[in-house]
Automatic annotation (TrEMBL):
<comment type="similarity">
    <text>Belongs to the sodium:solute symporter (SSF) (TC 2.A.21) family.</text>
</comment>
<feature type="transmembrane region" description="Helical">
    <location>
        <begin position="392"/>
        <end position="414"/>
    </location>
</feature>
<keyword id="KW-0472">Membrane</keyword>
<feature type="transmembrane region" description="Helical">
    <location>
        <begin position="88"/>
        <end position="109"/>
    </location>
</feature>
<feature type="transmembrane region" description="Helical">
    <location>
        <begin position="285"/>
        <end position="311"/>
    </location>
</feature>
<feature type="transmembrane region" description="Helical">
    <location>
        <begin position="192"/>
        <end position="210"/>
    </location>
</feature>
<feature type="transmembrane region" description="Helical">
    <location>
        <begin position="344"/>
        <end position="371"/>
    </location>
</feature>
<dbReference type="InterPro" id="IPR038377">
    <property type="entry name" value="Na/Glc_symporter_sf"/>
</dbReference>
<dbReference type="InterPro" id="IPR001734">
    <property type="entry name" value="Na/solute_symporter"/>
</dbReference>
<feature type="transmembrane region" description="Helical">
    <location>
        <begin position="55"/>
        <end position="76"/>
    </location>
</feature>
<feature type="transmembrane region" description="Helical">
    <location>
        <begin position="487"/>
        <end position="509"/>
    </location>
</feature>
<dbReference type="InterPro" id="IPR018212">
    <property type="entry name" value="Na/solute_symporter_CS"/>
</dbReference>
<keyword id="KW-1133">Transmembrane helix</keyword>
<feature type="transmembrane region" description="Helical">
    <location>
        <begin position="15"/>
        <end position="35"/>
    </location>
</feature>
<feature type="transmembrane region" description="Helical">
    <location>
        <begin position="244"/>
        <end position="264"/>
    </location>
</feature>
<dbReference type="GO" id="GO:0005886">
    <property type="term" value="C:plasma membrane"/>
</dbReference>
<protein>
    <submittedName>
        <fullName>Sodium/solute symporter</fullName>
    </submittedName>
</protein>
């Protein structure tokens, strides 16, 4: 149920703050109007005509992920669990982003597919394709609801409107530019939003550090103790008491299954790289995005930790005392309320609105592509004019936005949205990654194994979630004694293992496709020259995907060691 405006707290914005926010909205819609002029074909609307440079798609790649859950969810995790939250970045993101750039993007881009489900159709046929397309579409509607709910929360805190009114107003803004300009409007806005988000969160972090007395002040005051400033073994984060099992859950469940499942097969992210103007640019896009990604914890998690020290309501919440309607999701908002003067508050609010719109627009633009190409064109109307599918894409954008208003109600029931999000990833991304990676490197895997593995893996994740303590609230059975994000890690691991086992068994009893049909879809059957640009070997080091990926890998290892 979506609640009306509550009396917990309001952001004390003045005319200057409102003017900054209004100016930002005008710019966002203006970008949508300008991008509309570039849309003449469905490829323009859904994939920006594959014409954008790597730096644009790279920033859009990271900005699309820098949405409501990244800002509110990770700061909530920081407030509740401390530095262990960095695992979502340094273990659960950067390595997979580098792998996507070096290994996976050449297959996606070189095959000429328009979406990840289309790649699945070419590799496994319509069975796996339909399962993947439907599950992806549902996931995007649910995740768009999370971004929309948090976007509406900001409007509610600013204006005091009932939350349902805020939801409709927020949805209308995102709809205006995604329906007008398609992916180009989303991507150009995401590049702008990246800089606005950093401009908002960096000053907040500096002010918060000054307030608490720097890093030494954090060490002295953090509750329940300095163990919250160590990233390993992360038992609070996982909810697993055994340090060894907690580390295994983080490394295998988050670092391998959930991370690689999300970053390498999630079309929301892959779509941005697909809009690049060459294979080399497509490979660089996620690698470029990995560099800001590894430093985002310092402007998201650190403020969350400080909020749990300096914000009275969160201090009470963390101590187990009554704190009104305040949730950990409010950490960044409460910090802004208490620390930022007017003017700077307006920039911070614009930054938060930017992050939420970036996340929702990414979900909606990916949804309309998969719905139009992979569901409508494939199974409903096959041979219509190109302009027809562009119209379907715009209608799908409207429909998805309306549905997201409904799914926002589900998100409003979670005090820490990372629990909800990781549960969804376990359902949809983990089994897809298992099917995808097995099919890419094992030419014997059959089409029947593709869809049966996906269905079995998803069912395993759902079962583990129901057997855990709080994945579905009162509907959960609590048999396994798992809770929070640790339950999501175990569910993802179960999905991956079950998917692999079922796929192998089914493959043994079904007939594989001819090898000639799998060129460009299976690693061992694809000519290596088709996976690179002819002039890639002559690129300077700062444009060479392998060299950039190597630098990124070294940096993220160093960060993990420093904050061990």
């Amino acid at each position: 149920m979506i609640h009306t405006a509550d009396s917990t707290f309001r952001l004390d914005a003045n005319a200057v703050d409102y003017l900054i926010v209004a100016t930002y909205f005008v710019v966002v819609v203006g970008i949508g109007l300008m991008a509309r002029r570039q849309v003449s074909t469905s490829l323009d609307f859904f994939l920006s005509g594959r014409s954008l440079p790597a730096w644009v798609t790279g920033l859009a790649f990271i900005s699309a992920n820098l949405g409501a859950v990244e800002i509110m969810g990770m700061s909530a995790n920081g407030a509740e669990f401390g530095m262990a939250t960095v695992h979502y970045f340094w273990v659960g993101a950067v390595p997979a982003m580098l792998f996507l750039g070096i290994v996976m993007m050449p297959f996606y881009y070189g095959s000429g597919v328009r979406s990840v489900p289309e790649f699945m159709r070419r590799r496994f046929g319509t069975g796996a394709h339909l399962v993947n397309a439907l599950s992806f579409a549902v996931a995007q509607l649910l995740i768009a609801g999370i971004n929309l709910y948090l976007l509406a929360t900001i409007v509610n805190r600013l204006l005091g409107w009932p939350l349902w009114v805020s939801l409709v107003a927020a949805a209308a803004i995102v709809l205006s530019y995604t329906a007008l300009g398609g992916l180009s409007a989303a991507i150009y806005n995401e590049v702008l939003q990246f800089f606005v988000i950093v401009a908002a969160l960096l000053p907040l972090t500096i002010v918060a550090l000054h307030k608490v007395g720097g890093w030494e002040g954090i060490k002295d005051k953090v509750q329940p103790g300095q163990e919250q400033l160590s990233s390993w073994p992360g038992t609070d984060l996982t909810g697993i008491d055994s340090p060894v099992l907690s580390v295994i859950g983080i490394v295998f469940g988050l670092g391998f299954v959930l991370s690689f499942g999300y970053w390498t097969t999630n079309f929301v992210e892959v779509q941005r790289a697909m809009a690049s103007d060459s294979i080399s640019a497509a490979k660089r896009a996620p690698i470029i995005g990995a560099f800001p990604k590894m430093f985002i914890p310092f402007i998201v998690i650190i403020p969350g930790i400080i909020a749990a020290i300096v914000v009275p309501e969160l201090v009470k919440l963390k101590a187990g005392e009554a704190a009104g309607d305040v949730k950990y999701n409010d950490a960044i908002l409460l910090l802004m309320r208490d620390l930022l003067p007017n003017g700077m508050l307006g920039i911070a609010i614009a930054g938060l609105l930017a992050s939420f719109m970036a996340g929702m627009a990414a979900n909606i633009s990916a949804f309309n592509t998969v719905f139009s190409y992979d569901l409508w064109q494939q199974y409903v109307k096959k041979d219509e004019d190109d302009s027809y599918y562009t119209r379907i894409g715009r209608l799908a954008t409207v429909a998805a936005t309306i549905i997201a208003i409904g799914t926002a109600g589900i998100a409003s029931n979670y005090s820490n949205l990372m629990n909800y999000l990781q549960t969804l990833f376990g359902f949809f991304n983990a089994p897809l990654f298992a099917t995808f990676i097995l099919g890419m490197f094992w030419k014997r895997m059959t089409a029947t194994a593709g869809w049966t593995g996906l269905v079995s893996g998803t069912a395993a994740a759902v079962l583990v979630a129901f057997l855990s303590e709080d994945s579905f609230g009162s509907a959960s059975w609590g048999v396994l004694g798992l809770k929070g994000q640790g339950a999501s890690f175990v569910a993802a691991g179960a999905a991956f293992v079950v998917d692999i086992l079922v796929s192998i068994i089914v493959t043994m009893f079904t007939r594989p496709r001819d090898e000639a049909d799998l060129e460009g879809l299976v690693y061992s059957l694809t000519p290596k020259e088709s996976l690179v640009d002819p002039d890639e070997v002559h690129l300077p080091w700062y444009q060479s995907p392998p060299k950039l990926a190597g630098i990124g890998l070294v940096l993220v290892i160093v960060l993990n060691v420093i904050f061990w």
